Amino acid sequence: MADHDNHKKCDIGLIGLGVMGRNFAQNMADHGFSVAGYDRDKEKNQALMSEKTKQQELQAGHDLKEFIGLLSRPRAVMMLVPAGNPVDAVIDELLLYLEPGDLIIDSGNSRFTDTNRRIRSIEDKGFLYLGMGMSGGESGARRGPSLMPGGTRKGYERIAKILEAAAAHVDDDPCVAYLGPGSSGHYVKMVHNGIEYAVMQLISETYDLMKQGLRMEPEELHSVFDRMNREELNSYLIEITADIFLQKDEKTGKPLIDVILDEARQKGTGEWTAWDALDLQVPTFNIDIAVMMRDMSAYKALREKAGQVLKGPKPNFEGERETFVRRIKNALYAAMIIAYTQGMALLAQASKTYEYGLDLETVARIWRGGCIIRAALLENIRSAYQSNPNLENMLLDDQLGRAVIDREKDLRHIVCTGAKLGLPIPGLMMALSYFDAFRSSRLPANLIMAQRDYFGAHTYARVDSAGTFHTKWGKQ
To answer: Which run of H or of E encompasses 149?
Structure first.
């Protein structure tokens, strides 16, 4: 390593110089901040320094002690390491060298319950702690991600200028904001990922309807999704979907999409979202089914075996193609609104339960750029919460509710058509079911309560009297 004595102390340090960490370190340095990096893998330290430009103030420590020595006091250390035990291991090492008043920032995809535990432990020792979600992938880290910090406000204010400079910007507005105390930042990032799961599932189902139902080739699919991205469905996920259909496989020359195995992997954030939604009793139909469909995709061999014996309709659409594609587009837009609705409803309840004090307009604002679920739709969502910060459900907003109502017939038609063709489109079905359940003033839950009382004396409430009741049913 170079002699650091002639270098000034760094504004911030970053531990974990993988693709995300190295790119974000360079991003911060691009904006005039001095950054120290460290990774146990010496080659990653060297890669950071070899990619350094003359304009960037970047340094690297060959060990953790040297790295800490590069930082100005009070120190600010950001971690971009895998969630779970690696985060705890890095923190334990850091505490050997840091001093009370120093700030630790976890920018990985940590589970919010782990963040709560770490905050209690670290703040008891006199340190400051932020749990900060980061979304945007490799490109976002380098050019400007969406950043979702939560924890101590004092800690955020210490590095706010750095984060605001490095974040994505929409209309000169940085896609970062202090979200609230405790694990609020990692919770918001978790729900972001849950919505991401849901939207990806919806897009994959519309692809399947056109691929199998209309027998569209990748070039045609590119054209359809590219057109979608130029209209109201404009979003990062639609944009990359259009691009995917143009990619050729170097090995076979075929469209790459046609040689990718249909088994979807996951890292757990979607599951965490579904689990906590269950704990908070918030219905997140689309996030739940997106996780389940990834699980189903893993049974590739069994699905192939079942396909030989469990026969159903042949997925061959015989109607007017252009009309069907238009209806798919409308159904997808309505379903996307419904998926975002479920995520925002979960954030609203979590904010009350965990005392985060989330401002949902702010959440929508910082998701408009940099992150994976950025979409033109988020401008409408932001406007809805600006107009009514206490909005109970996005579908009750005049503009968003009307957008779904105007496309409800197309969503219903696509769901029916998918069922007739024998194509699995549970995401679109769940979106329609959520809409129908939410608008139902009466659900058949009264029968469920009668059954529970029948077999377990669990009691029930009545529509005409207050209190709880129990009946001796039938032949008991």
So the answer is: strand 146-151
> Are the CB atoms for 1 and 63 separated by under 8 Å?
no
Tell me how crowded residue 118 is: count the other CB atoms within 10 A of its CB.
20
Exposure string of 216-251, with b = 16+ CB inside 10 Å and e = fewer, is: bebebbbebbbebbeebbebbbbbebbebbeeeeee
| Residue 232 pLDDT greater than 60, yes or no | yes
Q: How many CB atoms lie within 10 A of CB 414?
A: 28
What are the distances in angstroms from CA 92 to CA 28, 107, 340, 383? 26, 17, 38, 43
- Enumerate domains of the chain plus CATH numbers: 12-182 (3.40.50.720), 189-438 (1.10.1040.10), 446-476 (1.20.5.320)
My answer on whether omega of the bond before 313 falls inside 30° of 0, hence cis, is no
Going by the DSSP 8-state scheme, the letter that residue 200 receives in this structure is: H
The first and second tokens of residue 362, run together, are 């702010």
Q: Classify the C-alpha dihedral 30-34-37-42 as positive or negative.
A: positive
Residue 366 burial by CB count (10 A; 0-12/13-18/19+): exposed, middle or buried? buried
Q: How far apart are CA 108 and CA 284, in angstroms?
A: 24
Q: In whole angstroms, what is the distance from residue 130 CA to residue 155 CA?
A: 7
Q: With CA atoms as reference, report the closest residue to 148 among 89, 181, 87, 189.
A: 189
Question: How far, in whole angstroms, is CA 170 from its chain's centroid?
Answer: 19
What amino acid positions are annotated as catalytic residues? 189, 196
CA 98, CA 298: separation in Å to the nearest integer?
44
Residue 224 in tokens: 């359809």
What's phi and psi for 312, nearest 5 deg? -150, -165
Question: Helices 269-280 & 285-297, crossing angle to 10 degrees?
Answer: 140
What are phi and psi for residue 60, nearest 5 degrees? -140, 140
DSSP helix/strand/coil, 338: helix
Instruction: Kindly give, in sequence order, each residue whose CB lies less than 8 Å from that of residue 68, ignoring residues fewer than 6 positions away.
Output: 13, 61, 75, 77, 94, 97, 98
CA 141 to chain centre: 16
pLDDT in tens, 27-53: 999 999 999 999 998 999 888 888 888
Residue 354 phi, psi (nearest 5): -100, 5
Are the C-beta atoms of 11 and 72 separated by less than 8 Å? yes
**pLDDT beyond 70 at 3:** no
Confidence at 449, pLDDT banded by 50, 70, 90: very high
Tokens (6 digits) for 71: 């930082």
461: which residues sit within 8 A by CB, 6+ positions away?
449, 467, 468, 469
